[in-house]
Queue: 3 jobs
Job 1
Amino acid sequence: MSQATIDMKTDPFWKRLLGGGSGTIWMATALLFILSPVFAPGSLSYASVVGMLPFAAVLAIASIGQTLVIQQGGLDLSVPGMMAFGAALATGLFQWYGWSTGWAIAAAIILPGVAGLINGIIVTQFRVMSLVVTLGMNAVLLGVVFWLADGIPAGAPGTLADFAKGKAFDIPGVFAIPNAVVIAAVIAVVAGIIVQRTIVGRRLTAVGISEDAARAMGVRTNLYRTLAYAGAGMAYGLAAVLYAGYVTTPPLFYADSYLLATVAAAVLGGTAIGGGRAAMVSSGIAALFLTQLGQLMRAVGLPAPLQLVAQAVVLITVVLMRAVVPMVSQWLREKRSG
């Protein structure tokens, strides 16, 4: 039995749900928000936070999709194409093809899921590397987006825009919770409960830890890995719908920056890059961390090249903390017991 399997059985459920056994990203996020006003006094103003949170929610939902793929030992490079495809469907089907808002939104979530399903089938049935399959799917979807929109961005339906820009709770000038954040929080918690508490989730984890061992136990490994890719596609589609509604007229190819960000959020959240352990809620917290970090860099006026360097330093620091903090904790426990 692998160490990951043992940890899964011994860790409390709340610990597995929130961080996969690591609270480093939670501490790093709290520290970032504490220090933000020190370096940029206006970075935590009402307008700054309310403007930042919807983008953090979009990244959080997309990161949950990437987490599903990484849990299966893969890496999804089709994120830009998936999200561009979802946004083009949510806006273009309504504006150019006369679809109702509901059907356009449904298509924007389901069709990226179908594209993810195709990714999963090719990866599992034909044993092609996920990097190759998803990179090819990314190119196909970007081509479809250009054909669908004929090179012209479309506007989001008014109902969708009102919802994406709306707030579930708002004390003007003091505090607000945008609707997009509520959706992201619900998705993260539900996904975390499914992964940690349901038979489907446990089988997904088992396949991610060891496909051969899961197959020996009678798990239909190809089915579950394919479902993970399909679920990821639907997550990208939902993230794209919220993005399209919030910005109203999204550029056709806006999602390039989400590729590395989703991978970083998944890894910082505690998901095992080799497969197995998945931390859905912490991936969402990592998305909040990355979004606020980017906003802080812009607020202090760092040039774009230095922003990338600073982000890299912070990311490396957080990853090292994930390794050092458990070692220190173990050393302290051994010292006390000794």
Job 2
Amino acid sequence: MSYHLKQGDLIFYAPMQFHTQSTFEKISSSYLTINFKMNFNHADLLCNKIFSLKRDSYFIVTKLIEELSNDNLYSNDLSLCYLKQLIIQMLRLDNSYFHSKPTTHMQQTYENELLNDILLYIDNNIYEKISVSTLCDHFCISTSMLHSLFRKNMNNTAKNYINELKLSKSKELIRNSTHTLSEISEMLGFSSIHYFSKKFKSYFNISPTEYSKSIYN
């Protein structure tokens, strides 16, 4: 996946993530890359997303670069402080949108369009192994944003929605009676026929075998 950053944009790479960086030909530009270690269990809230720096965040980056560029007393400590402040601001900026109900028509429209695109993607790829991380990577959003979007608008989680759609599709395939249960399980990306049967019975209160027999009867 490729990302196009404009002036004032910022992106975090995941730990151990392979990446390359380049600029457009015949266009004079520069960028700064900083490597750092961070004891943080929610890297998905930051990684592989583009943040557009506002004035206060841009000021922090400027001060961070300034401290990294000199050997003054406690420059390393100040650099860490600025880096932590920048990360916290990005986390707040990223999560504040979906943690509160949109208050403007433009925000609501954006949210609706994003959700529609996600639902369409799931529907078009129902025969693939779709996960929360798959959706986050494809739409360049964090796990928390995805969960908030589904919780607010679907009263559901993305994971449950995917499973429910796959199970509904499996019911349709069983009715068509052109595939075995094992084939259907594999087609829809379930890890095993046993797992598929367990989820099917939990959702429909009947096993896929029993459901198949009921149709023939």
Job 3
Amino acid sequence: MNFDGVRPDEQGEDMRIVITGATGNAGTALLRRLAAAKAEGQDLQLVGISRRHPDSLVPPYQGVEWHSADVGAAVDVPRLEAVLQGAEAVVHLAWQIQPNHRPDELFRTNVTGTANMLTATRRAGVRHFVCASSVGAYSRADKDRRVAEDWPVGGIPGSHYSRHKARQEALLTKFEATNPEITVARLRPGLIFQKDAGSEIGKYFLGRLIPRVLPAKPRIPLLPVPQAFVFQAVHADDVADAYWRVLRQRASGAFNVAAEPVIDPNALGWLLGARRIMPLPLGLLRAVVDLSWRAHLQATDAGWVDMAGGAPIMDTTRAREELGWSPARSSLQAIAEVLEGMARGAGVAGSPPLRAR
């Protein structure tokens, strides 16, 4: 919608949507969803902001106006403001989880970058700011209950990802209070998977070597995993559909986004073809992961163990009832896809972060 409450497509004008992190996992899926909306007759002008340009001749990056900027750099705020001029909405997806041995660099992109985008949004007069938060923003909760969007977003201290998401949420809350004329929405998805992100996710969490030796359909005799490893996942295309519904409805507030079923050790064992689940003490797994990460033997720091053991199970009723959203794929399908993508080195032609192995 524009400033007088009339949708641009009702005036014969394009709705200008600016997306940061548009070449990543969720960003690429969102571009696919918006391209489908355009094919359905929606008048959209899509603008992508990234540090490295994709190949703009390759779908879904084709037909997008591209700008290079570093959201974490103060000197780039005037450039961001210029790009945002005339936009109806901003979707802020830019986020880093690596290099996790350099936390200051992550903070610069994740927290400072969000603050910079909020400043540019206010100065440019954009009226809708849609942000990628996460289940990781939530404070610790027992796994035997589901939490709604009013659960505290204090993060889990041991995880840099969770701490940064909580700091981001605090920025959004303060921005809402001081800029009531701007509609702010935030999506809190579970783990986001798709086949095309297989190379990226494998590299980020397992390093460069381990994904190369994974079979497309892994089968292991024994799965040592803590009983507390109960989590939610969702396909990237389903997350993208939720973003589009938020944009189309100019929705505000927080929305939990996850598919069913909830993944527990038994479901994970079924996906991995494990014959038996061996409950592993959470503290022992954390120690092993921490030591191997510090030795640069693998890419996942121990904070991800803390978050997996402590992050709550989300209630997605609000997204289903207010947005009319429902996932087209199950969580099991999403995980099976990314496992296949990791094993096959899948990626997206034209995207620097999603480049195939």
